[in-house]
Specification:
mainly beta, 26-stranded antiparallel β-barrel, 7 helices, 50 strands, disordered N terminus, disordered C terminus, receptor
């Protein structure tokens, strides 16, 4: 046995020695200096080619001391060293490394300035260096980085040194985020990086230029240069004058389930047009958010509001793209986006979109309220059909007036209509008194809304460095007209029954405009004075008229004066600010002082009363930035919303009545944020930490009164000592074991602490709520052939009450999510996702465990894999449920909503890319949760 071990060790030693000799590599070294000043040449490019066919072997950049070392060179082959630097004559030297002499010292090489010729003029095309540094720009020669014929720009960027791309396509260069990508110096469909990286073929690119984003630096003059984002400019081999790209898909499931949609982008010279449309009844978005931003063109016309739910449902600028709301949804939409660049720096954008949705909802809700030794249990069943449609038209005008000033104007108009028919059955019982009430509530709502908003920005830089002026203006107008019919039968035990049959007519109009002026003046090299003024004007109208049904004629024409009121409010908000900013290397300190005058004028038209309120505040603020740390503090003043001061009760649900409070005062909130962000590109390590919170005085809380028959009435009141603190931490580390296999792991937590004030039946208590949720993430990738990711989350929510009149509460939850993608054999993609959720405590009839397992198989065909045929199964186990459990105030709520269950789907997708003879179609990587279309 011992002899076998010795023989094995000897064999391994001999093999290692042979391998070392076989794989032995050589290196060259030297130093570069300026021929006149003898100063070292930093960031000069030292490239090594094979002398016979000028194929690039490798390259390096010289250090600050002018030294260079190029290792990993082949032996016994004639090589050529090319040393280049912008504005200097090219230096060439041929050499051969051997086993006996694997190293070559080129000594000190003097670089001679050459004013007569540019770099490209004195270099043979085949010898062009892979990287050239020109002042503040890094330029990569695309031909030096080989890609597959069907590769996209994204694949080319991954091969560039110092360039990193994450799974979502976000780009960093040497740790700095890339803000925009230009094509031949111009925006490409709005400048979003993914528009170019995931659509343009790599073989069209001649050079990739990387430089600091000067626009970001102009808009944030206090920002350290090291923190400024990057701009990538793609220089094409020959200018693309026209082309089109996008994708279309259609799918059919068993039963009546289906999906269809497409996005097509066309461009000719400086004109760019995007057209999109979709329709499905699968309770999901027709497109992902990144595709709406980029392919759909929303980045060009502006994004005012975004809502994304956990299932991928998407709402942008008030328009649903599917999967929003509750229940099972059918959604459809169509729209276009047009962008044109004129001469003299003028760009005009136009956008229109129409969206329509229908939601069918069946909901079971169980709420337990803990009142001393009594538990109040309310159980409700809701059946509802919601319909909504909306039109939105938007414009965008950008004008680069000159090299020091620019202006941008973005107006938009939205028109919408919503209808709803709802039946809710509620039963309330007491652990002491037994059944308290039962309610059958039939509601019908028809509402129309109109919205207009615009933003206007003007920015001016002066000749004096650091002096700047900017102006911002916004206007928002929203109107709502709603008719709500309530037909309610309430039964109270043992006293009897009551009915409600009424129409609530609501007219609401909100108008606001805000203007901000800011001026910066450098006092010294490190000290800048900032002055600002902001004027905000609000005008709100809330007119509520309630009519009882006239049994004689069947019309709703009998006014109910106790439930009718007309409230109007105007508000002026003047804010004068001053501040000093001090900068030293990577340290930035800003101190501000704000003087706020707030005037609120409330007019109760129906009763002929006025309530005018005037407030003055001195509000300090500050910000400290040092390397990766940032600490900020500010004070905000928030007046109560008009709905909170409306004195008329909302009895839409007679068991839960909401009242307003005209005596509410503005809430004063002290806010702070501390965050840390670190991206160590060389070690592929990302660390993020955040701590923030606020302490509010005159915060708005809702007092609650619960009557003996179970009717609950709430009203907002002011309370001091309202706290909210939030912290999170996350790290992610990637390990590359070799060129084909990588492993990543991450961990973190979310912790939320709130201290609120609780008033129930005159019993008062502060309640502390702690929600702690740690999580783990891991994933592997083998040459993009096999990808596997897993996430685990465990959450605990605890509520502690200072008063013994209330019972402490605890809610626990767990979830695990995993996905597997296998791209074997060639042309086939196998996918599987599993989302498993578990709630340890739920009410009777509410499912504790939910497992959603999806699976799919995609076949790639046609030229360049432009065609994709996918067979998928949604909810393989047929166990999908929408179940939620949460605690608030003194109650725990379990909610279960209907959702789609198992179906089988066959979907065909066609990728469109047409760039003439110069470019070939490319499908990119197919499969995984980051793909355009979900299960």
């Amino acid at each position: 046995m011992r002899n076998r071990i010795l023989l094995l060790l000897l064999s391994l030693s001999i093999g290692a020695a042979i391998s070392a000799q076989t794989n032995q590599k050589g290196q060259i070294s030297g130093k570069l200096v300026d021929s006149a000043s003898k100063q070292p040449m930093n960031l000069a490019t030292v490239s090594v080619f094979t002398a016979a066919d000028t194929v690039l072997v490798t390259y390096r950049l010289s250090t600050e001391s002018g030294e260079f070392k190029v290792s990993g060179l082949p032996l016994d082959i004639q090589l050529r060293m090319i040393v280049s630097y912008s504005g200097y004559t090219v230096t060439r030297k041929e050499f051969k490394l051997t086993t006996d002499a694997p190293s070559f010292d080129a000594g000190t090489l003097e670089m001679t300035p050459n004013q007569a010729n540019t770099l490209d003029e004195v270099l043979v095309y085949a010898e062009r260096p892979p990287v050239v540094v020109k002042r503040d720009t890094i330029e990569f020669n695309a031909n030096s980085f080989k890609t597959l014929p069907s590769a996209l720009v994204e694949d080319l960027l991954k091969k560039l040194p110092g360039v990193q791309l994450d799974a979502e396509g976000n780009i960093t260069v040497n740790g700095k985020k890339v803000n925009r990508i230009l094509v031949d110096g111009k925006d490409f469909f709005g400048g979003d990086p993914k528009m170019a990286t995931r659509n343009l073929p790599a073989n069209l690119i001649d050079k990739i230029q990387v430089a600091d984003d000067k626009d970001e630096l102009d808009l944030n003059p206090d920002k350290a240069k090291a923190d400024v984002g990057q701009v990538i400019n793609l220089k094409l081999k020959k200018s693309i004058k026209q082309g089109w790209f996008g994708k279309a898909y259609a799918g059919k499931a068993d039963g009546d389930r289906y999906e269809a949609g497409g996005i097509v982008n066309m461009f000719r010279d400086t004109l760019q047009v995007s057209v999109l449309g979709f329709s499905n009844n699968l309770n999901k978005a027709g497109f992902g958010f990144n595709d709406i931003r980029t392919l759909g063109g929303f980045d060009r016309s502006g994004i005012n509001s975004i809502s994304i739910n956990g299932n991928g449902g998407l709402n942008v600028n008030g328009i649903s793209f599917g999967g929003t709301g509750q229940g099972i949804q059918q959604s459809r939409g169509i729209g276009f986006n047009l962008n044109n660049e004129f001469k003299k720096g003028l760009t005009l954008n136009t956008q229109y979109f129409y969206g329509k949705t229908r939601n069918d909802i069946t909901e079971l809700e169980n709420r337990q309220q803990f009142l001393g030794d009594t538990i109040l249990n309310s159980r409700s069943n809701r059946s509802e059909v919601q319909n909504a449609n909306s039109h939105r038209i938007g414009f965008g005008l950008r004008w680069k007036i000159d090299t020091t000033s620019r202006m941008e104007f973005r107006p938009s108009l939205t028109v919408g209509e919503q209808t709803s028919n709802r039946l809710t059955n509620v039963n309330t019982t007491s652990s002491v008194d037994g059944p308290l009430n039962a309610s059958n509530n039939l509601q019908s709502v028809n509402a129309k809304d109109l919205g207009y908003n615009h933003t206007l920005n003007y920015f001016k830089n002066f000749r004096k460095k650091g002096r700047s002026f900017n102006m911002f203006n916004s206007v928002n107008l929203n109107t709502l007209n709603s008719d709500q019919f309530n037909n309610v039968l309430n039964t109270f035990f043992p006293t009897g029954a009551s009915t409600i049959d009424q129409l609530r007519d609501l007219e609401r109009a909100n108008f606001s405009t805000n203007t901000n002026l800011n001026f910066a003046e450098p006092l010294t090299k490190d000290l800048t004075l900032r002055l600002g003024y902001a004027l905000t004007y609000f005008e709100n109208k809330d007119a509520l008229s309630t009519f009882n049904k006239n049994n004689a004629n069947g019309k709703y024409d009998q006014i109910n004066n106790t439930l009718t009121n007309h409230l109007e409010r105007t508000s002026w908000r003047n804010n004068l600010s001053s501040g000093l900013n001090f900068r030293y290397k990577k340290l930035s300190i800003t101190a501000t002082l704000n003087f706020l005058w707030l005037d609120l004028n409330n007019r109760y038209v129906s009763i002929g009363q006025k309530l005018d309120q005037h407030f003055n505040y001195i509000l300090p603020g500050g910000n400290i930035s040092w390397k990766e740390f940032n600490l900020s503090y500010n004070v905000n003043v928030n007046p109560p919303g008009i709905g909170d001061i409306q004195p008329v009760a909302d009895n839409s649900n007679p068991l839960y009545i909401n009242k307003g409070n005209p005596d509410l005062k503005p809430a004063v909130s002290h806010n702070f944020n501390l965050n840390y962000f670190k991206n160590v590109t060389a070690k592929q390590l990302f660390i993020s930490a955040y701590l923030g919170g606020n302490i509010s005085n005159n915060g708005v809380v809702r007092s609650r009164n619960i009557a003996a028959n179970g009717i609950q009435t709430t009203m907002p009141v002011n309370a001091d000592g309202i706290h909210n603190f939030y912290t999170n931490f996350y790290f992610n580390k990637q390990y590359k074991l070799n060129k084909t296999f990588s492993f990543n792991m991450g961990a973190g937590y979310n912790l939320n602490y709130t201290r609120n004030f609780l008033i129930i039946n005159t019993k008062k208590s502060y309640v502390k709520n702690i929600d702690f949720s740690p999580y783990l993430r891991a994933g592997i990738n083998w040459n993009d052939k096999i990808e596997w990711n897993v996430n685990y989350n465990h959450g605990v929510n605890n509520a502690y009450y200072e008063s013994s009149d209330f019972r402490n509460l605890e809610v626990e939850r767990q979830s695990i999510n995993t996905d597997l993608v296998v791209r074997l054999p060639k042309k086939f993609v196998w996918e599987m996702t599993l989302d498993h959720r578990y709630n340890s405590q739920t009410a009777p009839g509410v499912q504790k465990t939910v497992s959603l397992l999806n699976a799919g198989l995609t076949y790639l065909f046609l030229k360049d894999d432009k065609g994709q045929l996918k067979f998928s199964v949604f909810d393989v186990l047929n166990q999908n449920r929408s179940v939620f459990r949460f605690s608030a105030e003194n109650y725990i709520t379990d909610r279960q909503v209907n959702i789609l269950q198992r179906y089988f789907m066959l979907t065909f997708t066609y990728n469109i890319r047409s760039f003439g003879a110069a470019g070939k179609g490319a499908g990119g990587k197919v499969g995984g949760r980051q793909s355009l279309f979900f299960f």
